[in-house]
């Protein structure tokens, strides 16, 4: 039988990590230019910080943190939507974990709850179905967030609500897409990224093929990496080797979970219920065309944005003046560049979204700053 602990001990083996670090250092001497690797996903940021991987790399290799934290990229006006919905009579607003603590212009959902809003955290999206069934006189709104990874779960919830005739469950859809966001980052002339560690959970669903246009458009290698330190270091080595060889292609390091084509039934389920929005405003990145999903018109009866359209506004709301989340999400700044990092902004009292979630760069820097010792 597969010994999971032994397996993961292997992916965290310090000697393997050190060996990879030595190999990277040797081979990176042949790089013609510095290698600036964007790890798109906040899960990879977390691994890099937690295990101090940056300190193992030579000076000509840098990590640049990307926009792959769904909580971090949610703009304030969407959080305001959630707060407004939660304050409506006979509405229960349900959403996943960290979203409750992200500040909008009217405060966070946690503060809204203190003012009397019925806000309930979910650990499993399907719990929303039970809450709706248990409260037939109320309208339950699922504030759905996440990248391509979590959209299938929302689709399953909707499918279940339809098939069981649970009519009092609505959806406020905030599912966003990785490729358009990464393209937007690369279109910014200030951004110095020339290699990517590709998000792997997204790739489990969508397949690594979704990065081929990125490689084609920008001649930038992409390695889809697992989340353990050995995965990340091996992926860095693979990027170094592509660069030294003058190549740019999509490579799958995380082959134990990711395939080129992904989970086709999950993709089909998502396509049953969702369509692409013309544009969606990302925190820090601004409006990006075709970068998010919404429910198809035939599911308008489930769409909280349509059903509560009279009380929801789409006024753009800027971040706190001191917050540099925007620059961090675009790869132009590091958390320690923010003057309120660890002072006015901490995980206990977050000022910006990047400090809330464990996938946020500011949160990871704060949590592991003893490891990093970068400030
Ligand atoms: S430390 Fe806080 S205020 Fe500064 S960029 Fe990060 S989240 Fe924003």
UniProtKB/TrEMBL annotation:
The keyword Heme appears for this protein: no
GO biological-process terms attached to the record: protein maturation
InterPro entries: Hyd_form_HypD, HypD_1, HypD_2_sf
Keyword list, A-Z: Iron, Metal-binding
Pfam families tied to this protein: HypD
Keyword Metal-binding set for record: yes
Signal peptide per UniProt: none
Top-level taxon: Bacteria
Gene Ontology molecular function: any one: carbon monoxide binding
Coiled coil: none
NCBIfam families: hypD
Family: Belongs to the HypD family.
Family annotation (PANTHER family): HYDROGENASE MATURATION FACTOR HYPD, HYDROGENASE PROTEIN ASSEMBLY PROTEIN HYPD
Protein name: Hydrogenase maturation factor
Organism expressing this protein natively: Photobacterium aquae
């Amino acid at each position: 039988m597969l010994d999971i602990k032994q397996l993961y001990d292997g992916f965290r083996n310090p000697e393997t990590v050190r060996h990879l670090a030595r190999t990277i250092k040797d081979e990176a001497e042949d790089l013609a230019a510095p290698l600036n690797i964007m790890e798109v996903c906040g899960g990879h940021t977390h691994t890099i910080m937690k295990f101090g991987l940056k300190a193992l790399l030579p000076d000509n290799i840098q990590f640049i943190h990307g926009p792959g934290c769904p909580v971090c990229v949610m703009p304030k006006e969407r959080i305001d939507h959630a707060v407004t919905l939660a304050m409506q009579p006979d509405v229960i607003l349900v959403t996943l974990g960290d979203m409750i603590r992200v500040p909008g212009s009217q405060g966070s959902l946690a503060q809204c709850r203190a003012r009397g809003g019925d806000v309930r955290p979910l650990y499993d999206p399907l719990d929303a179905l039970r809450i709706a069934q248990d409260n037939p006189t109320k309208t339950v709104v699922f504030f759905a967030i996440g990248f391509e990874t979590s959209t299938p779960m929302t689709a399953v919830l909707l499918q279940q609500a339809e098939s069981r005739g649970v009519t009092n469950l609505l959806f406020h859809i905030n599912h966003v897409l990785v490729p358009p966001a990464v393209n937007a980052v690369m279109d910014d002339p200030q951004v110095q990224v020339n290699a990517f560690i590709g998000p792997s959970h997204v790739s489990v669903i969508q397949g690594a093929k979704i990065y081929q246009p990125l490689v084609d458009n920008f001649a930038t290698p992409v390695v889809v990496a697992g989340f353990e330190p050995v995965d990340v270091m091996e992926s860095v080595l693979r990027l170094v080797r592509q660069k030294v060889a003058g190549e740019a292609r999509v490579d799958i390091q995380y082959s134990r979970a990711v395939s080129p084509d992904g989970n086709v039934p999950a993709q089909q389920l998502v396509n049953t219920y969702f369509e692409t929005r013309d544009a969606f405003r990302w925190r820090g990145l601004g409006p990006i065309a075709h970068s998010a999903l919404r429910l198809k018109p035939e599911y308008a009866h489930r769409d909280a944005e349509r059903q509560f359209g009279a009380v929801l506004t789409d006024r753009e709301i800027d971040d706190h003046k001191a917050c540099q989340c925007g620059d961090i999400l675009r790869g132009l700044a590091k958390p320690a560049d923010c003057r309120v990092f660890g002072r006015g902004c901490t995980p206990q009292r977050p000022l910006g979204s990047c400090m809330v979630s464990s996938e946020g760069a500011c949160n990871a820097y704060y949590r592991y700053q003893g490891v990093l010792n970068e400030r």
